[in-house]
Amino acid sequence: MLSKKTKYALHALTYLGKHKDEKTVLIQEIAEEYGISHKFLENILLELKKAGMLGSKKGKGGGYYLIKEPKDIPLSRVIRLLDGPIAMLPCVSLNYYEPCAECVNEAVCGINRVMIQVRDETLKILENKSLEDILKEE
Amino acid sequence: MLSKKTKYALHALTYLGKHKDEKTVLIQEIAEEYGISHKFLENILLELKKAGMLGSKKGKGGGYYLIKEPKDIPLSRVIRLLDGPIAMLPCVSLNYYEPCAECVNEAVCGINRVMIQVRDETLKILENKSLEDILKEE
DNA sequence: ACAAACCCTATTTAATTTATAGGGTTTGTT
DNA sequence: AACAAACCCTATAAATTAAATAGGGTTTGT
């Protein structure tokens, strides 16, 4: 399951996408829209900013704004940033690979094989769907 | 990511599948094969038994054994039993549905829509792949 | 009778996630 | 220049969940 962090990030990005004609949007405004903690959301937006997905303006009249076109923000990127691996097993993760401690021999592991298929089908969607696709539905 | 419980369950089932010509297999034997705690595995096997996937024999000379054909144990069933929902969001889970607390309106949520797609593709694999498919690879 | 091996429930420990805290820095306005 | 609004940053605490352990109970073959 996606963590709250990731869910909040996706919601916040969606909100910013909907308000991209406005120069900036306040953290507080987004937090209120979804009924989530201002401070928790602040940390998340900061992380999105550091990752180059958002811009911000400090001081009075400041706030956050998208610095990319929604179509250029794939959902896989957001999930990986906040949650880490998308795969169901560390041993099939493309970005966060780790061997499974209990695995006797990864080279002939049937569980591994199935989870590679799941990973590939999942990525086929999440790498090709972007913030734009979410916005189109709302 | 799958929990260790689920991973251990899948490995144990695989091991039992490989030894299905033997009447019973000891917990201890499986635990040693994968280097996992006897007691932890015991709890897991018990859960699999209660769910009707395994049979057991008590007392001296006892142990566990499969009571179904490997092809009749879909992976989705094992995962749901030990880990719960397969979906990435509670609001798209078929077996463990719950609304997302922060969601303003599920009826027009773009995140929901994408995650339904991911769920469907994932289930297409996990409901159709069985223990038999894992065994074939090993 | 005895020991092997599963059965059952509860508790503890560890890890992770979620949330809070609190001051720092920048910037527009007066 | 003063002030307040608003983001920046790091650390810590609280809550939840996952993982592991504990310990006795019951069944069964020899």
UniProtKB/TrEMBL annotation, chains A, B:
The keyword DNA-binding applies. Pfam families: Rrf2. The keyword DNA-binding applies. One of its GO terms (cellular component) is cytosol. NCBIfam families: rrf2_super. PANTHER family: HTH-TYPE TRANSCRIPTIONAL REGULATOR ISCR (PTHR33221:SF5), WINGED HELIX-TURN-HELIX TRANSCRIPTIONAL REGULATOR, RRF2 FAMILY (PTHR33221). This is Rrf2 family transcriptional regulator. It comes from Algoriphagus aquimarinus.
